[in-house]
């Protein structure tokens, strides 16, 4: 199947008991057994281990990311946390230096006393990245495009290095979605998603996902998820699965609107810098073109004035864009990373990578572009 067919049919079958075309919400915690240890259906005994609605979503996730196994979690961070349970004291992890603030907080604060050592590096400096690798390096973690600075990491080049050194390579594919970028096909071992974003697509659910290329690694992570319990409930699984069915249609429009918003901002007299990988002057535009089939709906920018107050005033004035955390829904959202999504990163580290106080991040939705541009213009005025 090709991608647009897969988002609708990949890994799906009609409900075996009723013939329902769409997977029912199996809102049940447990399943009948005929005799102790002999469930009526051998696949299902307790919903922390497996639930049919979640299984339908997990099969769809594996299908659209070209993986062997998908797992659905109660949040994106729960998915990342489960992955980190593969590692022990003494192991080292190398991560991109621009990450969602919550991921950075998980790595640096929650795992602070775990004995796992984290390195943060600009993955575009492949020499520096390679200089950090040693025999303890167990995982390389990148977001691409990154949140919120839209840096691009060259997945295929990094995969060559991690493969040669037998290091696991995980890509947070939240911003790109598999419609635009397929990390497993480019050599990564694991894809992670905040399914809260484009996969769900409607800002009505918190969810996460891991998709593994290798079935054995999928089994190992399923065991860890089962043993710790951060699974996605049946109703939320249904909502994400329903979202995935229109992923291709939505992301097309997100890309169109994202490009037009980026071009508008680039030509605006009050704007200093625009971060959008689709702009030819983006420093990693060529890498983005090589590994993505479009550039998505996320656009960040700074003010000529460099003023935090200007950024705040602008965000108080937008009307069609809603001032809120999160991204990837059908509705446009605006965010101030330094005060909102990335507030957990210490100021010096934040400024070092370029998350300045005048940085605004936009998640362009699928509304009419004229309304979006008019809204931005009135807020600038
Ligand atoms: O919020 P949650 O579903 O737990 O996902 C965390 C996460 C992981 N990775 C990326 C790239 C993300 O953007 C997020 C969540 N981000 C926001 C809430 C935000 O507004 O940036």
Account of the 3D structure:
The chain has 381 residues and is of the alpha/beta class. Helices cover 37% and strands 16% of the residues. It contains 14 helices and 14 strands. The strands form 3 sheets. The protein has a 7-stranded mixed beta sheet with strand order 3-9-8-7-6-4-5, with helices on both faces. The chain is globular and about 75 Å long. It binds ligand P1T. Ligand P1T binds next to α3 and α4.
Instruction: Report the major sheet.
Output: 7 strands, mixed
Question: What fold name goes in the CATH topology slot of the largest domain?
Answer: Aspartate Aminotransferase, domain 2
Q: Could you spell the SSE succession in H and E letters?
A: HEEHEHEHEHEHEHEEHHHEHEHEEHEH
Integer tally of domains: 2
Q: Which structural class fits the helix and strand makeup?
A: alpha/beta
CATH structural architecture of the largest domain: 3-Layer(aba) Sandwich
Gyration radius over CA? 21 Å
Assembly state: single chain
Distance between the termini: 49 Å
Helical content class = 25-40%
Q: CATH homologous superfamily name of the largest domain? A: Type I PLP-dependent aspartate aminotransferase-like (Major domain)
Count of beta strands: 14
* Bound small-molecule species: ligand P1T
Q: Return the CATH class of the largest domain.
A: Alpha Beta
Strand fraction equals: 15-25%
Tell the overall outline.
Answer: globular
């Amino acid at each position: 199947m090709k991608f647009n067919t897969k988002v609708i049919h990949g890994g799906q079958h009609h409900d075996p008991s009723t013939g329902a075309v769409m997977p029912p919400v199996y809102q049940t915690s447990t399943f009948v057994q005929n005799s102790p240890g002999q469930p009526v259906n051998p696949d299902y005994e307790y919903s922390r281990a497996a639930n049919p609605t979640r299984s339908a979503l997990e099969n769809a996730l594996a299908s659209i990311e070209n993986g062997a196994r998908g797992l659905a979690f109660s949040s994106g961070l729960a998915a990342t946390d489960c992955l980190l349970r593969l590692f022990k004291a003494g192991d080292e992890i190398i991560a991109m230096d621009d990450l969602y603030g919550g991921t950075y907080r998980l790595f640096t604060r929650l795992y602070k006393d775990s004995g796992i050592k984290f390195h943060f590096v600009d993955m575009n400096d492949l020499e520096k990245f390679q200089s950090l690798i040693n025999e303890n390096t167990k995982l390389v973690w990148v977001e691409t495009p990154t949140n919120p600075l839209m840096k691009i990491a060259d997945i295929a080049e990094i995969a060559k290095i991690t493969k040669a050194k037998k290091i696991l390579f995980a890509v947070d594919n939240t911003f790109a979605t598999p419609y635009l970028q397929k990390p497993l096909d480019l050599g990564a071992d694991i894809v992670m998603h905040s399914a809260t974003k484009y996969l769900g697509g409607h800002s009505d659910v918190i969810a996460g996902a891991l998709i593994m290329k290798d079935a054995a690694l999928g089994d190992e992570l399923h065991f860890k998820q089962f043993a710790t319990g951060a699974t996605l409930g049946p109703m939320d699984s249904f909502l994400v699965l329903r979202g995935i069915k229109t992923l291709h249609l939505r992301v097309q429009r997100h890309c169109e609107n994202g490009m037009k918003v980026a071009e508008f901002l680039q030509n605006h007299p009050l704007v200093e810098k625009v971060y959008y990988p689709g702009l030819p002057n983006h420093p990693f535009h060529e890498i983005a073109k090589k590994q993505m089939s479009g550039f998505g709906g996320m656009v960040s920018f700074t003010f000529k004035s460099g003023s935090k107050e200007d950024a705040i005033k602008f965000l108080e004035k937008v009307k069609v864009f809603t001032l809120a955390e999160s991204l990837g829904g059908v509705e446009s959202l605006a965010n101030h990373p330094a005060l909102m999504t990335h507030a957990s990163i210490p100021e010096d580290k934040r400024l070092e990578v370029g998350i300045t106080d005048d940085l605004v991040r936009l998640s362009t939705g699928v509304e009419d572009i004229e309304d979006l541009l008019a809204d931005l213009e009135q807020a600038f005025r």
